[in-house]
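PROTEIN DESIGN WORKSHEET
SECTION A - STRUCTURE
LENGTH: 374
TOKENS:
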């Protein structure tokens, strides 16, 4: 007979294999061995997700091209991870919080943030090109895992306010090796903060493979040590991502605390445009993952059910091209940057040290103007 402790432990464990509802060919598959029930999302939701993934991928390709044109200093592509970024982002509501890493540009565009504002950080114009409070979206985070602690705190704040809002925090597989990951999970579990930790396991922490990061059966198993329920999902299966997110959101909104998701996926491009991925992974490996493309997978499922046709595909592709052209045109205009903006949005009330630094920069700028005009 199962003891109470054993039952509690079992409730925390992820399914032994990643949840999958649609296979790489687009065929719907029967669930087997999953620890929870995952209903198939509606065709309307999947069609909306397909549309957002097509637009998102075109944005990602355009942003990559902008680095080659010198319009962006750096760009971390998320091509291949569309189901994760788009599916998770579409699942949350406008009142929920989103905490991205540097790779979540596509998620931010899906969130409805202006692509030009999204790329402001990567062009070097500002620390963050959009208003985090107005969009309920934190600034993109380059230091690994630090945003998870912020997400746990924000989620706990929502709980104390009595709302049912949650925080969705993205993280890569390599960042699970950072101390902030463990601190955030522990805090969220102890204080029952409604936060979803969404790990995009794309197999490499830049060039370090997962096998050199952990001996755990999967990263989802890391939740049990903190009392956080977890699930692993086929991150290239759009339907499965939506289904697992639905369960995680219900868990968080009902006051049961945090939830950990590990999505098994793959980044098709290099870590950033400054990286040479051929030095640490083979072309055969990349080719194998191309056959698991999330957009092609859901498109096949939708077409087989008469939910998508050539005209709809052509219209969506045309829309994506129009948006890419608009971004390209606006990125070709040199930005007007105010050096004094460095001191804005650092603290709600500037500290004496910040005021001193601000005054020093203002004096230097005034001296430069006087010398120029003399």
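SECTION B - SEQUENCE
RESIDUE ASSIGNMENT:
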């Amino acid at each position: 007979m199962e003891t109470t402790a054993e039952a509690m432990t079992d409730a925390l464990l992820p399914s032994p294999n990643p949840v999958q509802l649609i296979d790489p060919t687009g065929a719907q598959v029967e669930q087997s061995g999953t620890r929870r029930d995952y209903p198939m999302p509606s065709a309307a939701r999947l069609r909306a997700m397909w549309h957002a993934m097509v637009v998102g991928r075109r944005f990602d390709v355009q942003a990559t091209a902008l680095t080659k044109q010198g319009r962006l200093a750096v760009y971390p592509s998320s091509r291949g991870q569309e189901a994760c970024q788009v599916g998770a982002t579409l699942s949350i509501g406008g009142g929920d919080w989103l905490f991205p890493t540097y790779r979540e540009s596509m998620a931010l565009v899906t969130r409805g943030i202006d692509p030009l504002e999204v790329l402001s950080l990567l062009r070097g114009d500002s620390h963050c090109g959009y208003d985090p409070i107005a969009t309920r979206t934190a600034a993109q985070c380059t230091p690994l895992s630090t945003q998870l602690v912020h997400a746990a705190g924000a989620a706990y704040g929502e709980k104390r306010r009595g709302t049912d809002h949650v925080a969705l925090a993205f993280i890569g597989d390599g960042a699970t090796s950072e101390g902030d990951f463990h601190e955030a999970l522990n805090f969220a579990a102890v204080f029952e903060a409604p936060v979803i930790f969404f790990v995009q396991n794309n197999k490499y922490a830049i060039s370090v493979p997962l096998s050199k990061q952990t001996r755990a059966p999967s990263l989802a198993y890391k939740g049990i040590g903190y009392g956080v329920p977890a699930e692993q999902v086929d991150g290239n299966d759009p339907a499965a991502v939506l289904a697992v997110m639905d369960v995680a959101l219900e868990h968080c909104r009902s006051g049961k605390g945090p939830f950990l998701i590990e999505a098994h996926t793959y980044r098709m491009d290099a870590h950033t445009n400054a990286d040479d991925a051929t030095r640490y992974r083979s072309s055969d490996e990349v080719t194998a993952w191309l056959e698991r493309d999330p957009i092609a997978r859901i498109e096949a499922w939708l077409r087989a059910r008469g939910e998508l046709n050539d005209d709809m595909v052509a219209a969506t592709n045309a829309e994506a091209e129009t948006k890419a052209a608009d971004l390209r045109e606006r990125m070709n205009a040199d930005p007007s940057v105010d050096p004094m903006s460095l001191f804005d949005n650092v603290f709600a009330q500037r500290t004496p040290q910040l005021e001193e630094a601000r005054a020093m920069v203002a004096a230097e700028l005034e001296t430069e103007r006087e010398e120029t005009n003399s």
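SECTION C - NOTES
Strands lie at 97-99, 167-172, 195-201, 204-205, 208-209, 230-234, 259-264.
The mean pLDDT is 94.
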